[in-house]
Structure formats: C-alpha cells, structure tokens
Amino acid sequence: MTWRRLRGGAAIAFVPGVVAACYTYRPLASAPAPDTHLALVLNDQGRVGAGSDIGPAAVRVEGMLVEATDTGYVLRVSAVEGISGARQRWTGEIVTLRRDYVANVLERRFSTGRTVAAAVGFGGTVVALIATQGLGVLGGGDKTGKPPGDGGGTQ
What is the pTM of this model? Predict the structure, then answer.
C-alpha cells in the first residue's frame, strides 16, 4: 500500500466523521431566527398531514429556516428522515410545515468536544496505520525487513 493511497483513503474516511462530529442538535431555547439550521421532529399528525409534501412516513425534516410564522415553519429542506431511519437528501426545496405537525424543534449547534474527539481519533488511526504498515515514515529498515547498515561487507 502506498502512502498516497493510504492518505487519500484516510481523508475520505475522515471527512464525513469530522463533519458529523462537529454538530449536534439541541432543543431550541427561543424563537428561531431566519437562516438557522433546524430539525423538525414530526408528530403522528404531521407524518400523515405532510406526507404529500415530504413523502410518507417522514419523522424528521432538516433544513434552513426561511421564516417562522404563528402557524408554521418555512424551511429550505436539506434532508428528510423516514420512520425506518433512512435519510433522503434534498437540494433546498422550500416546504411549509404547520406548527401542529411538529412535536419538537431542534437547532443545529457546533460541538467543540465532539470535534476534538474525532480529530484525536483520526490522528491515532493515522499513527497506528503508519506504525503497522511499515510505511518508512518513522524510520526503520528497508522493505526487506533488514535494519539499516546491515547488508554490506566490511571495508
């Protein structure tokens, strides 16, 4: 395995983990402002009532808040999670969900602790791969396994 392939594979594996670790969803403490990233957890009435707009059996809708009114939330939808747990990506379509369809409103927030933990985990993984794969980065013998300086005659 070459260092380039290892580095590329590690980066591909690392990026989604860190991006996911960077954010958590927490209950909304106050009225949401436009451009806040929200997750709306639907109640039973919402799963049925919003089915024609977001698909049947949706339990959670994520996106940027366009507007919050007395009667509903207007979102630029980025993802919809179904009752089975499957997530469907959206590309910013605007959907209005009635307030009486929503059981819980969650706000996406940056999580320093989770991000640090993900970065430390990634760093440990890279060090372990380097150490176990004999990539020559930490010194040591050549690819034959012989230590340096052992292989020639004396002069």
Answer: 0.60
How confident is the model at residue 65, as a pLDDT? Answer: 98
Q: 36-51 pLDDT, tens per residue? A: 999 999 999 999 999 9
Task: Look at 145 and 61; give whichever has higher pLDDT.
Answer: 61
Per-residue pLDDT of 14-30, as tens digits, reads 555 444 558 788 888 78
Classify the C-alpha dihedral 39-41-47-50 as positive or negative.
negative
Concatenate the DSSP letters of all residues of the chain into one string: --HHHHHHHHHHHHHHHHHHHHEEEEE--SPPPTT-EEEEEE-HHHHHHTHHHH-TTEEEEEEEEEEE-SSEEEEEEEEEEETTS-EEEEEEEEEEEEGGGEEEEEEEEE-HHHHHHHHHHHHHHHHHHHHHHT-STT----TTSPPTT-SS---
Q: Which pLDDT value is given to residue 25?
A: 82
Which residue(s) pair with 97 in the sheet? 73
User: Could you tell me which CATH number the domain at 3-110 has?
Assistant: 2.30.30.100
Tokens 């860190």, located at residue: 18
Cα gap 132→124, rounded to integer Å:
12
Ranges of each domain in the chain: 3-110
